[in-house]
Amino acid sequence: FASNLPPYFKDRLAENYFFILAVLFEPQVSRARIMYTKFYTILGIVDDTFDRYASPPEASSLQNSLERWAPDHTMDQQPDYLKFVLHFILDTYEEFERELKPEGKPYSVKANIEELKKVVKANFDLAKWAHAAHVPRFEEYMEVGEVEVAVYAALAAICMCMGDMATKEAYEWLKSKPKLAKFISAKCRLMNDIYGYEDDMSRGYVPNAVNCYMKQYGVTKQEAIRKLHEMVEDVDKAINEELLTTMGVSRLLLKASMGMAKMIAICYNGYEGFTRPEGKTKEYISLMLVDQIRL
């Protein structure tokens, strides 16, 4: 699997697997962890391609092709790396379908594909803003940015990977855009932009929650970051409330949602632990997956 990744992709397979342990840690769900790691690798490739690598025409062709789930009329004219990315994603989902076919729940893969398409569209919209050096209104940015962090798609992927969670009721709940998923999305977006701000600015990437808040409310960077931290605190309270009060949803799905919130807290614990895994993240991975536990 790793040998098929595009050459520019940041190799984060170990990081993906580590963070997923916050969501799926039981020994009996090893297959789900492997599938989920592959899904998160796709998210990373999509993010790298739109965020850092593709030109506007290339980004448009990839978005159109993934929306169609087949190459669009301009894909033949695109560079080889873009064709590779498209076919890598399509081939990985074909692998998911083959793996899950015996379970008789074809809608689980289809539901995840539809959520992935929304993530791709959000990545494309952010890329257009970035190429135009456009800083939108804070609310407009958050509406797109919360989709781009892929919490809904990730929860749909958990359902897909975990056969006993892949019920039509679970997908209907996700399609209803529940408050719990929205609050987790907001937490991820805000923390990503707070701790990834300097990296964004170092490469001239201006659509960021900090910049949007600064521009809209005429405040300094420090004040904007302070306000965003306050929003994260409010969102954490809202997540806890939703976890305690949400009814009619599988406890397994709620447990996975809680694990995702934990994963975000670990990833952005005073730093950007995914893009810059050196330091704490590397130490955590060694402690969890490499170093033996002394008895």
Automatic annotation (TrEMBL):
Keyword line: Lyase, Metal-binding
Residue ranges constituting the Terpene synthase metal-binding domain according to the UniProt record: 1-237
GO BP annotations listed: terpenoid biosynthetic process
GO MF terms held by the record: magnesium ion binding; terpene synthase activity
Gene3D superfamilies noted in UniProt: Farnesyl Diphosphate Synthase
Keyword Lipid metabolism: no
Pfam families assigned: Terpene_synth_C (PF03936)
Name of the molecule in the record: Putative terpenoid synthase 7
The species this protein was found in: Noccaea caerulescens
